[in-house]
User: What shape does this take?
Amino acid sequence: MRVAASSSTRPSEAEQGAAAGGQLKRRHKSLSALPGAVSRMASSARNARAAAAHLSHPIRSDPIRFSRLARRMVAGLVCCVAGGHLLAAPCNARPLDEVKASNLLRVVVYERNRPFSWREGEQLVGVDVDLAAELARELGVGIEFIARMQGEDVDTDLRANVWKGPVLGGGVGDVMLHVPYDRELGVRNREAVLVNPYFEQRIVLAFDPARLGEVAGLDVFKREKVGVQLGTVSDYFIMFADGGAYRNNVLHFMRLDDGAKRYQGGEMAALFGIRSETEGWLAAVGAKGARYLEVPMPGIQRSRWNLGMAVKENSRDLGYALGAALDKIKAAGTLAAICARHGVTYAAPRLD
Assistant: This one.
């Protein structure tokens, strides 16, 4: 029940006028502050663009020189490439029917990840890029790439690229390539579904037969030099193998292209690392004739692993459709041909 205000508690006309005047003054003050707020917002936007330009500089964006914070910042600056154009609008992962309806498949690949995905000028190229184009063709839709730097770990990348989006804003893809097809990784990341393994990574010894003969084991590195990328599983193993017997002949490099050039120049007789990466970089520098050997690695849990795809949990039907498309691509020999085009030997995944 509503109760009417008594005359003793009702404000006078003078008091009501004063209150109204105060409200008008406060509104005027807020409006007068608006241009300054807009100016500050514009300044923030300019600063953000400047930071992005700073981080995209070819020297400053070298992954070896990134701090962890810089890696996270670059991961948040989504680079959606569609015919060479940047896309400003955020995007969400979608099931198969929405992908078909939009006539567009959005694919996440890594930046600076030769031989799978890297840039030549402004153009994305590589095994994953060509495979994604074939997958989209099999689905009968167009393609749009989202290229991002690697984060601190794969879990972070799945969150940023598949189901949630980067910390600093940006959308996710419909599917992400180059994801380790690993049971434990899948259990930890319930919001993403790991599907469709398409390539097996292997740690191998790439050696020069002219210096080491046709068959090489680790013993030769008691006298010959072997190169390895600093901070990798291969580095850890070779430095401590056989009680450190080869340590004095291990040459470290930070960048894979540097290692390939030094091998080609004869500074080292072998490279120890992931075969696809080694093959890709040796092809890039024009080094030919290397032989590849898998060596036993006692104490290392895994020297082989499969690469696959990841889709969001509610996009399983898209994962199934991509799997069917992948089967056709592999059966036709197209995936092997794509790998050969980028200097890589195709290694079919082995599922235990």
Q: What stands out?
A: The first strand starts at residue 79 and ends at 82. Residues 1-21, 23-89 have pLDDT under 50 and may be disordered.
